[in-house]
């Protein structure tokens, strides 16, 4: 990504002249506070959001949407179809649905409208994997999942990395990223504030979040002053 700029209005830039090079065949984590621009950045990479300026390339060419499987935070379903029918929308004759679903335990012939939030999340994850694209973009993939499914998903992503997939993951949980990613990039007000590899994760986390914690502590002290004692 080179000189990438995305605006909400002419005067409000969500992504501001961002430059970021992502190595292929590894897992990248993008972390940032709410409103930092994480989802906007992912939507722009996928092509759901149009950039005002800059370029996004993959292997020396303009990135093609067809090269990406994208797990978005909000998913729309045809509520009156079954999970099996939903997954049939993605064509991949080599995808063994029964084996994959043995990991996720979904009732595939049940109408999606009867699924819980966590079950729907598992379903869209299966859809992403069935597409089998060279790039996976996963926006908050662990939200809404139980502990065992988080472990399974993490293991799958590490195996897909071994197969050469380039994976981009966002999360509000730093520990999730440090246990999974090869690189972490901190997005702050539409710019990359810091990037680091595995060997620097501890220092990175301390520097970034100590600044945030210090800033928040000042605000907390101010607002609590107005609370009366019992």
What do you see in this structure?
With about 230 residues, the chain is α/β, with parallel strands linked by helices. The protein has one domain (about 1-225): 3-Layer(aba) Sandwich (Rossmann fold). Helix content is about 35%, strand content about 20%. The protein contains seven helices and eleven strands. The termini are far apart. The model has no long low-confidence stretch (mean pLDDT about 90).
The H-and-E topology, N to C, reads as: EEEHEEEEHHHEHEHEEH
CATH superfamily: P-loop containing nucleotide triphosphate hydrolases
Helix content: 25-40%
The number of E-state strands comes to 11
> How many structural domains can be distinguished in the coordinates?
1
Mean pLDDT comes to 88
CATH class: Alpha Beta
What topology, given as strand order, has the largest sheet? 7-8-9-3-10-11
Radius of gyration computed on alpha carbons = 19 Å
In terms of DSSP E residues, the strand content is 15-25%
- Specify the overall morphology: globular
Q: Biggest β-sheet: count, sense, barrel? A: 6 strands, mixed
Distance between the ends: 55 Å
List unreliable stretches of 5+ residues: none
Q: Tell me the CATH architecture.
A: 3-Layer(aba) Sandwich
SS element count, helices = 7
Which structural class is indicated by helix and strand composition?
Answer: alpha/beta
Question: What features would you highlight for this structure?
Answer:
230 residues, alpha/beta, Rossmann fold, six-stranded mixed β-sheet, globular
Write a concise synopsis of the structure shown:
The chain is built from seven helices and eleven strands.
């Amino acid at each position: 990504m080179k000189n990438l700029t995305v605006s909400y209005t002419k005067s409000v830039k969500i992504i501001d002249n961002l430059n970021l090079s992502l190595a292929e065949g590894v897992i990248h984590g993008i972390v940032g506070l709410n409103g930092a621009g994480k989802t906007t950045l992912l939507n722009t990479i996928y092509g759901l959001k149009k950039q005002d300026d800059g370029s996004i390339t993959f292997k020396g060419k303009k990135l093609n949407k067809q090269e990406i499987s994208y797990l978005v935070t909000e998913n729309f379903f045809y509520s009156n179809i079954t999970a099996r029918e939903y997954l049939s929308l993605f064509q991949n004759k080599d995808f063994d649905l029964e084996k994959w679903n043995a990991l996720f335990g979904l009732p595939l012939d049940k109408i999606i409208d009867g699924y819980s939030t966590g079950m729907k999340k598992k379903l869209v994850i299966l859809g992403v994997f069935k597409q089998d694209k060279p790039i996976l973009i996963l926006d908050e993939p662990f939200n809404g999942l139980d502990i065992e499914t988080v472990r399974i998903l993490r293991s799958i992503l590490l195996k897909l990395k071994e197969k050469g997939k380039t994976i981009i993951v966002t999360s509000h949980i730093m520990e999730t990223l440090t246990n999974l990613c090869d690189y972490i990039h901190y997005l702050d007000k539409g710019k990359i504030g810091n990037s680091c590899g595995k060997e620097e994760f501890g220092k990175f986390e301390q520097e970034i979040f100590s600044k945030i914690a210090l800033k928040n502590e000042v605000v907390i002290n101010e607002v609590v002053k107005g609370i009366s004692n019992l």
